[in-house]
Amino acid sequence: MKTASKVCENCGEKIFSDAPKGLCPACVLETGLGPLAGESGDKESTSLPGDNARAHAADVLMDFGDYELLEEIGRGGQGVVYRARQKSLNRTIALKVIGLGQWATEAHLKRFRREAEAAANLDHPCIVPIYEVGEREGSCYFSMKFIDGGQLDEVTKRQPISARTAAELIAKLARTVHHAHEHGILHRDIKPGNVLLDRNGEPHLTDFGLARLVETESTVTRTMEVLGTPSYMAPEQAVGNNARVSRATDVYGLGAVFYQLLTGHPPFAGGTTFETFRLVLDTEPRQPRLWNPKIDRDLATICLKCLEKDPQRRYSSALALAEDLEHWLKHEPIRAKRSGVFTHGRKWLWRNPTTAGLIASLVAVAVGAGVIVWKSELVRRPPITGIAVLPFENLSQDKENPFFADGVQNDILTKLAKIGDLKVISRTSVMPYRGVRNTRQIGNALRVSHVLEGSVQRAGSKVRVNAQLIDTRTDTHVWAEQYDRNVNDVFAIQSEIAQKIADQLQAKVSAAQKAAIQERPTNDLVAYDLYVRATALADAADPPNQERDGDRLRKAVDLLNQAIARDPSFLLAYCRLAQVHDALYFHGFDHIASRLALANDAINSAFRLKPNSDEAHLVLAKHLYRGYLNYDDARDELAIAARTLPNDARVFQLSGEIDRRQGRWRDSVRNFERASELDPRNDQHLYALAVTYRMMRAYKQAREVLERVAALKPNDVDARLLGAWIDLDERADTRPLYAVIENILREEPASAGIRVPGLFVLALYERDFAAADRALALLTDRVFGEIKPSIYFGRAIAQGVIAHAKGDTAAAHDAFAAARPEAEKAESEDPSHGGTHATLGLVYAGCGLREQALREGRHALELTPVAKNAVDGAGVLYFFAVICAWTGERDLAFEQLETLAKIPAGASYGDLRLDPNWDSLRGDERFEKIVASLAPKETVSK
C-alpha cells in the first residue's frame, strides 16, 4: 500500500512513499528531470550538472508546446501552476503541469486526468473552467482560465475581510460545492489556497485534484490512506476512512475556510502534521469569539456546526449551509443551534469511551458509598446558609437618621451578597419586613434559614449598632453583638458584622471576597447619606410608570451629584447615577441622546476609579442593553459582573431580559426564576416571567406565575391586565379585558390616559368605532402607548387605522396624510429604529404609496430583525405583514403571517381572529389554516 508518510527532500511537501527520488512532482518538474543542486547523480544524469542544469531546465520550461510559461503562480503535491500565454489563441491562461516523466505510473496519470475531467464537467461561474487536457514529454498538463486576483489566503493576509463579506463569500462557495455534489463530484481539499478571488472579489473554486465520484469508488482512492490538507481536513479524512468521506466532508472544508476568515487562524494547527491530525481528531476548535469577541454569535454557531466531528451533526448539505448563511445575511433566524453543556459532554464521551467508562464506574462506587454514609449519619449534613438582612431599626432622635440606619443595613447586605457560598436575599424583598419580628414567618416566606436584624442609634459623634443573627427554624439567637464607636467607624462596624455572619454560617470566603467585605464605600458620611436618600427615591420609582416617578428620578440625580461633589471617589454613587440616567431615558421621561451621554460619563468615571469593579460592569451591561440594545456586549459585561455578584438578583433579571430579546426563551425563564429565588418579594421578576410565558404562548404557565404575583400583591393592576390579555390571546375573548379595565377606571379614574392602548385595541377588535373614538379622546400629550413591541401610534395614525377598518378610504387617506409629516420627522430623528420605519411604512400604505410603504417595511425588518431582537422584531414583522395586506401583497402577507404564527412574541389566535387589519385576507384558505394552527385545542376539536 502507498502511504503519504514521507515529505519531499527539496521543499518539504507531503508525498507518497513511492514518489520518484523522494521528491514531489513539482520539484521533479522544476529540475527539468535533472539532478537538484548538491546532488551528485549517476553518469547518465550528470550531463548538465549544477547551475547549468537549472539554466537548461528554465530554458525548457519557458517553452511548453503551444504555451509560453511566464511565471510560477502556485504549487502543490501534484505539480506546478504557471501563468502562461497560449500562442495559438494569444490569450493568458493558467497551466497546471505534473512532471513525473519516466516515473509516471498509470495510477498517477489516472489521478491527474480525473482532476481535469472532474473540473471540466462542471459548468458553474464560480468553478475555474478547463480549456485543454494533454501530455507532453512525459508531463501531463491542463490549461484553465486565469483568475487575476490571487488566492484567498494571500488576499486576506494583505487585507482582512469583514465577517459579513466572509459570510457572503462562503455562501457563494457553498452553492458552488452543492453544484459539484449534484453532479456526483466531491472536492475533498477545500482550503483558502484553492479559492481564487477575481478583481471584483468573486470567489472561484479550483484544484479538483482530490475529487472523486460520489457514487463510485476509485481504485486510486483506495491506494491512498490520507488525502487533503491537515489543518482543513475533516476527521474522517484524517483517519484515512475513505468509506466515510461524503458531502459532509466538503461542508467541513467550507467551515474550516470560514473559521480562517473569521478568526485569522485555521481551526487546528499543530507543530507537525501528526500533531495537527491529533488535534483534528481529539479536540474541539477554539470558540471563534475567543479569538475575536466582535464575531457575531450566530456566525460562530454556523461555523462550528460545519466543524462537528460527527458528519451527521454537520449541515445536511452545502446548500443547507448556504441557506443558513443567507438567513443571517438577511437578518433572519438561523437554523443552527448553539451546543450546550450536554452536547459537549456527549462529544467528549464519544471521543473518550474508555475513560468515560472508568469515570462512570468510579462515580457509581462513590455514590453508593455516599448514600450509605448519609443514611448512617456518619457525616453531618451541611447547614443551610440562606440569609435575609432585615431593615435595621432607627433608635435615633433625629428624624433624618432613618436613612442612616437603612445605609447600615444596605451595606451589610451588599457585603454578604458578594460571598458565593451564601444565599442572600435581595434588598427589595426584605424591605417590606420593616418592624416585623416573626422570624419563623419571615424564614418561611423568604425560604432562608437565618435572618439578621438590628438597630442603629446615632447621637452626635457617637453611634451604637446592635446586630443579632437568628435561626428561623428554631427562632433562637445564634450570635449577637453591640458596637459603640465613633460615627466615622460605622463602615468598619459594617465590615466586622458581615465577617462575623460569614463565620457563624461557616461560609467559605475567598481572599477577594474578604477584601470586598473590608472595602469602604466612601469616607464621607454626608456623601453616603445623600447616596442612601437617592437610592430610596430610585427604588420607589422602579419600575416607573407615572410622571411623579420621573420627578423622583430627577431628584435622585440631584442628590447623587451632591454626593459626588463631596467625594469624587465615590464609586457606588457614580454607578447609581448612571442607572438613574438610564431609567429616565429608557422609560421615556427624557429620551434624548444627552441623557445617555450623562450615564456613559458616570460609568467611565466609575471605571477610572476601579477598572475591575463588579458594580460598574453590571451598570455598563444595563446601559448597553437599555441605551443601545447592544445585547452581545451587554451579555459579556454581565458575565464579568456575575463572577463577584453571585447573589445579585439584578444579574439574573437582566440576563433574562437579554435572553428574551435574543430568543433564548428557556434560558430567559430560568434566569427570571433564579432572580425570583434571590428576591422573592419582588413581583417584577415574576411579572417578567409571566410576560415571557405569554410570548411563548405557554398560557397555562403564565397564569400559574400570575397566581404567585397575586399572592404577593392581591390587587396588582398590571398582573390583572396581563391575565386578561392572555385570555384575549388564547381564546379571542375580549370580555375579561373589558371587565378589568372598567374596574381599574372605577378605582383609579386618573389612570384613564395610560389605559388608552387597551381600550383602543378592544374597540378596534370588536369593530366598535365609536368606542375607539372615545379612547382617542383620552389621549394625553405623551406618546400613545405600545400597540405591539417597538410600535407607537399618535392620534392621527390611530384615526387613520379606525377609518381604514371602517372601509372609509377617503377618510383614511386624509388621516394618514395628516400623520405623514410627523412620522417622517420621527424617522429622520431616529433612523436606526426599526419601529419608526414600520410606522412610517404603515402611514405610506394608508396614503396609497405602495412602493414607499414596502420599502420602509423592509428597511424596518433589516434594522430590527427577529434574529437579533426577538421581541421588537416580532412587532415590526407584524406590522410589515399589515403593510403587505394593505398594499395588496397577499402572498407576501401570508409569508409573514406563517412566520408570526410559529415564532414566540408573534401573532396570537386572538390577534388573527379579531384584528380588522386582516379583513382583506379572511376567507382565503391560507389565512384560515394559519388561524386554525393557533386555535386552542377545544376550539379545534369542535
Roughly what fraction of the amino acids lie in strands?
5-15%
Q: Total domains, how many? A: 6
CA distance, first residue to last residue = 71 Å
Total count of helical runs of at least 4 residues: 42
Globular, elongated, flat, extended or rod-shaped: what is the shape?
globular
The name of the CATH architecture of the largest domain is Orthogonal Bundle
Largest sheet: 6 strands, antiparallel
Structural key phrases:
alpha+beta, globular, about 55% helix, 42 helices, disordered N terminus, Transferase(Phosphotransferase), domain 1, six-stranded mixed sheet, about 950 residues, Rossmann fold, Phosphorylase Kinase, domain 1, 6 domains, six-stranded antiparallel sheet
List the helices and strands and how they pair.
Elements lengths: L5 E2 L6 E2 L9 H6 L19 H13 E2 L2 E9 L4 E7 L4 E8 L7 H15 L9 E7 L2 E7 L6 H7 L4 H20 L2 E2 L8 E3 L5 E3 L6 E2 L5 H4 L12 H4 L8 H17 L9 H10 L5 H4 L5 H10 L11 H12 L11 H11 L1 H24 L9 E4 L3 E2 L7 H16 L5 E2 L2 H4 L8 H8 L3 E10 L2 E10 L4 E11 L3 H15 L6 H8 L6 H16 L6 H20 L4 H16 L6 H17 L4 H15 L2 H14 L4 H13 L3 H14 L4 H13 L3 H14 L4 H15 L3 H13 L8 H10 L3 H9 L6 E5 L2 E3 L1 H12 L2 H21 L4 H13 L3 H14 L6 H17 L3 H11 L8 H6 L10 H10 L2 H5 L1
Parallel strand pairs: 13-15, 13-16, 14-16
Antiparallel strand pairs: 1-2, 3-4, 4-5, 5-6, 6-8, 7-8, 9-12, 10-11, 16-17, 17-18, 19-20
